[in-house]
Q: What sequence folds into this?
């Protein structure tokens, strides 16, 4: 049995299939984990959704910002961006099933082995990371609360309410709506933060290009006793993160970089080069 983790697909089905063939993924014994953003700017978002959904319990994915935007577009809330190539999903005969399945995926997922100390032998995965203010338990609680809302009968209202950059700091007196927006932003859009942990959602640059007062979110988690954290989202990092126990896996496939697979048990990384799709 092996556990394989792959960064953002962004609709790049050919590259996904190359990696899965290279490791010989066997869904009856192996597990595939994905960091979210299954869809958007690559050539076959529909195929990516179908492939991952068909793996059933052998696959675990978290929601990314592009996944959530697709759900909003499908429900008449958001507008398609020029670069998005998700129209085939909306027109597919199985569109309703695919979107229902996507909406029921988690914001935070945890892998653990069957040992007495599961956290020590496993990992936590979100699309963008975990906000510096939160302990892992707070992150779990926030994720479960937001997931409940996104799976509820009033999910369309919640999708409409998720847009916006505020609040940028978690406080106990935030309204339910503010908590939902902060949670979604923290798990799916976060890159840089102020030194006090406030989110900065305006800058998408590399670390070297960021304003001096902003730092990567993961540099501010030193006070937390985290298990290994795995995230995607930040293609500009090119998979490089020097913080021990934190693994960046978005290596910019859709931008002409590569798609990267990490074997959890061995620590080996395998990458396949990609053309420029976006």
A:
């Amino acid at each position: 049995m092996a556990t394989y983790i792959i960064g953002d697909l962004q609709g790049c089905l050919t590259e996904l299939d190359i990696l899965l063939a290279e490791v010989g993924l066997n869904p009856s014994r192996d597990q595939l984990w994905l960091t979210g953003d299954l869809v958007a700017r690559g050539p076959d978002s529909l195929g990516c959704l179908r492939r991952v959904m068909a793996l059933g319990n052998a696959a675990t994915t978290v929601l990314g910002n592009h996944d959530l935007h697709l759900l909003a577009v499908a429900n008449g809330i958001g507008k398609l961006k020029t670069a998005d190539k998700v129209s085939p999903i909306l027109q597919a005969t199985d569109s309703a099933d695919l979107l229902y399945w996507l909406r029921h995926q988690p914001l935070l997922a945890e892998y653990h082995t069957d040992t007495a100390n599961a956290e020590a032998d496993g990992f936590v995965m979100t699309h963008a990371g975990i906000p510096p203010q939160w302990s892992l338990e707070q992150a779990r609680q926030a994720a479960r609360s937001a997931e409940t809302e996104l799976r509820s009968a009033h999910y369309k209202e919640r999708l409409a309410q998720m847009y916006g950059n505020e609040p940028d700091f978690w406080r106990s007196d935030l309204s339910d709506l503010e908590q939902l927006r902060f949670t979604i932003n923290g798990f799916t859009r976060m890159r840089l933060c102020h030194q006090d942990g406030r989110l900065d959602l305006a800058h998408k640059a590399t670390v070297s290009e960021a304003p001096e007062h902003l730092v990567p979110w993961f540099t501010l988690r030193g006070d937390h006793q985290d298990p290994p954290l795995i995230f995607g989202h930040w293609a500009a990092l090119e998979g490089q993160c020097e913080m021990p126990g934190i693994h960046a896996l978005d290596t910019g496939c859709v931008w002409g970089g590569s798609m990267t697979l990490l074997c959890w048990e061995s620590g080996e990384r395998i990458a396949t080069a990609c053309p420029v799709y976006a």
Remarks:
- DSSP finds nine helices and twelve strands in the chain.
- The chain has a mean pLDDT of 94.
- The domain at 3-273 is CATH 3.60.21.10 (Purple Acid Phosphatase; chain A, domain 2).
